[in-house]
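> call design_seq(struct)
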C-alpha cells in the first residue's frame, strides 16, 4: 500500500516542467529490493540532468521576446550617450563558443585561461597606467582564430597562442612594458570588426538579442560582398545589459585611424545602417551611440558635439541627448590597471557607468536568474526522492 502511494508521489515529481525530466515507470515494483533499485535509477537520472544543465546552460523555457528581446518595454527609455567608461585600449581574448561561457567566465574553475589572465592582470595593476578593457570573444576556427588568440585595438594587432604557461610574459611584455610579446609572433589584422554581446548566461537580454544581431550582420555582410572586410564576433559582457543589443565597432575613420564606437538598443533593422553609414561612410549613428574609445563624454564636455573622429554624426533617431565626442588614442597603449571587484546585476543603473577609480575593467558576468530557478528545481527533485526513500525505509 505504502509503496503504491510513494510510487504515485514520485511520478508526480517526475512530471516537473523540465524538458528532460527523469523518467519513472508507470508501475512500481512491490518488493523492497526492486523498489530501491528503481529509486536509485531515478536519483541517477536527476543527477545527470543537473550535470547536463550546468554544462550546457540550458534554459527551461524559451525566452519571452516581449520581456527580454527587442520589443521589451525598457527599449529606448534612457539616453545612451555617456554610458561607456573612458578607456584607451581594448584587448579581446578568443575563447570557446558563447553558448558555453559561464556567467563569470573570468572566475570559472573550469576555464583556467580567462581566470589566470584576470588574476595576473589584477596582481600587476599598480604597474599599469593606461585604461584598458579586457573582453572574451568567441573563437572562430573556420576564420583562423583559435582559443588563446588575442586581438588588440586600436593597434590592430593579433597574437596567437596565449596559454596558462605564458600569461606572465604576455602581461609583462605587452601590458606593462608596451613591447612586442617575446613568446608570440605579432600579426596585423585589417578590416572592420563588429563585437556583439551574446553572453546569455550573464543576462537573458544579451542572450536573446546578441545571436539574432550576429546572424543579421552576417547575412547583410554577405549580401554586400564584404565577408573579407567586415568581421562579426560574439563577445562576453561589456556592461549595460539593459541597453541590449550592445554592439562595439572597431573600424578606420575618414582619416584612416582606428576608432571604437559603442552602440545600444540595436535591433536587426539597424544593421544595414551600420554597414552602409558607419562602416562605409564613417558616419556615427547618433540615436544609438553610447560612447567611444578615448576619454568619456563627461571628460570632454564643451568640445564640438557635431562631429566625431570617425565622421559626421547622423541623426535618424529620437534621442537628441548626445554629449561631446572626443578623439581617442590611436597608438597601442600597453598598460592598465584592473577592477575585477565590480560585478553589476541585471538592474544596473547609470551609476555603473560613472568614471571608475581603477584604470581597467574586465567584462565579468554574474549568475542569471534562470540558473537559480534550474538549480532550485533540480535540488527539489533530489530532496523529494530522498524524503520518499526515508519514508519507505521507515515503513519497513
Amino acid at each position: 500500500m505504502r509503496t503504491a502511494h510513494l510510487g504515485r508521489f514520485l511520478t508526480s515529481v517526475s512530471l516537473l516542467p523540465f524538458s528532460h525530466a527523469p523518467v519513472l515507470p508507470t508501475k512500481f515494483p512491490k518488493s523492497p529490493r526492486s523498489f530501491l533499485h528503481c529509486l536509485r535509477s531515478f536519483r541517477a537520472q536527476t543527477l545527470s540532468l543537473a550535470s547536463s544543465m550546468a554544462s550546457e546552460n540550458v534554459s527551461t523555457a524559451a525566452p519571452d521576446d516581449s520581456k527580454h528581446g527587442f520589443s521589451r518595454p525598457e527599449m529606448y527609455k534612457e539616453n545612451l550617450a555617456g554610458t561607456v567608461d573612458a578607456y584607451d585600449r581594448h584587448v579581446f581574448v578568443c575563447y570557446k563558443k558563447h553558448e558555453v561561457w559561464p556567467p563569470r567566465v573570468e572566475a570559472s574553475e573550469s576555464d583556467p585561461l580567462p581566470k589566470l589572465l584576470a588574476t595576473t592582470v589584477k596582481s600587476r595593476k599598480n604597474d599599469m597606467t593606461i585604461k584598458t578593457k579586457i573582453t572574451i570573444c568567441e573563437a572562430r576556427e573556420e576564420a583562423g582564430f583559435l582559443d588563446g588568440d588575442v586581438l588588440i585595438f586600436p593597434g590592430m594587432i593579433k597574437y596567437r597562442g596565449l596559454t596558462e604557461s605564458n600569461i606572465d610574459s604576455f602581461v609583462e611584455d605587452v601590458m606593462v612594458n608596451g613591447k612586442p610579446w617575446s613568446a608570440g609572433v605579432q600579426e596585423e589584422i585589417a578590416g572592420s570588426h563588429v563585437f556583439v554581446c551574446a553572453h546569455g548566461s550573464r543576462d537573458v537580454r544579451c542572450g536573446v538579442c546578441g545571436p539574432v544581431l550576429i546572424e543579421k550582420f552576417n547575412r547583410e555582410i554577405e549580401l554586400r560582398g564584404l565577408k573579407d572586410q567586415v568581421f562579426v564576433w560574439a563577445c562576453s559582457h561589456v556592461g549595460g545589459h539593459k541597453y541590449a543589443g550592445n554592439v562595439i565597432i572597431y573600424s578606420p575613420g575618414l582619416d584612416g585611424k582606428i576608432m571604437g564606437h559603442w552602440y545600444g538598443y540595436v535591433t536587426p533593422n539597424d544593421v544595414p545602417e551600420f554597414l552602409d553609414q558607419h562602416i562605409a561612410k564613417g558616419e556615427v549613428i547618433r540615436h544609438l551611440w553610447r560612447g567611444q574609445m578615448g576619454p568619456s563624454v563627461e571628460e570632454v564636455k564643451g568640445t564640438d558635439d557635431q562631429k566625431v573622429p570617425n565622421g559626421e554624426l547622423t541623426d535618424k533617431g529620437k534621442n537628441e541627448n548626445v554629449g561631446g565626442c572626443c578623439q581617442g588614442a590611436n597608438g597601442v597603449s600597453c598598460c592598465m590597471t584592473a577592477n575585477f571587484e565590480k560585478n553589476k546585476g541585471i538592474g544596473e543603473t547609470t551609476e555603473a557607468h560613472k568614471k571608475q577609480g581603477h584604470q581597467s575593467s574586465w567584462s565579468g558576468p554574474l549568475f542569471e536568474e534562470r540558473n537559480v530557478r534550474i538549480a532550485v528545481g533540480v535540488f527539489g527533485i533530489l530532496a523529494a526522492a530522498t524524503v520518499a526513500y526515508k519514508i519507505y525505509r521507515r515503513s519497513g
